[in-house]
Amino acid sequence: MTVKILIRRKFLEGTLKAASEMLIQARTNALSHKGYISSETLHNYDAPNTVLVVSMWDKKEAWDSYATCSSRTDNERKFAEILDGETEYEIFNLGIGG
């Protein structure tokens, strides 16, 4: 079942340019991973240092595989240096199953 992964990060003041470059790299990495469908990056209107990435995968197992791959974990270590708090994740199925 197709899933959307919501990834919320709050970045330290003055780090959005670096964050943007890392987000582009993260998307580039995901593009080559099996099961990746698409993603979009949202910038919070009222809290400009907060960014939400909505990533779509053909199934949760594809996301799980990508989430633990070395290219992503390396990039996540770089994110940690400019974050104001922890990265938050939520996983949603598309539609309501019965």
* Mean pLDDT level: 94
CATH fold-type name: Alpha-Beta Plaits
Oligomeric state of the chains?
A: single chain
Number of helices: 3
User: What's the number of extended β-strand segments?
Assistant: 4
The biggest beta sheet is recorded as: 4 strands, antiparallel
- What structural class do the secondary elements suggest? alpha+beta
Number of domains: 1
Low-confidence stretches: none
Distance between the termini: 13 Å
Element string (H = helix, E = strand): EHEEHHE
In the CATH hierarchy, the architecture is 2-Layer Sandwich
Strand order of the largest sheet: 2-3-1-4
Using the alpha-carbon principal axes, give the shape: globular
What portion of residues is helical? 25-40%
Describe this structure in words.
- It is a single chain.
- This protein has a 4-stranded antiparallel β-sheet with strand order 2-3-1-4.
- The protein is 36% helix and 31% strand.
- The radius of gyration is 13 Å and the shape is globular.
- The protein has a single domain (3-93), classed as Alpha-Beta Plaits (2-Layer Sandwich).
- The two termini are 13 Å apart.
- It has 3 helices and 4 strands, in the order βαββααβ.
- The chain has 98 residues and is an alpha+beta fold.
- α1 runs antiparallel to α3.
- It has helices at residues 16-31, 60-67, 70-80, and strands at 3-10, 36-43, 50-57, 88-93.
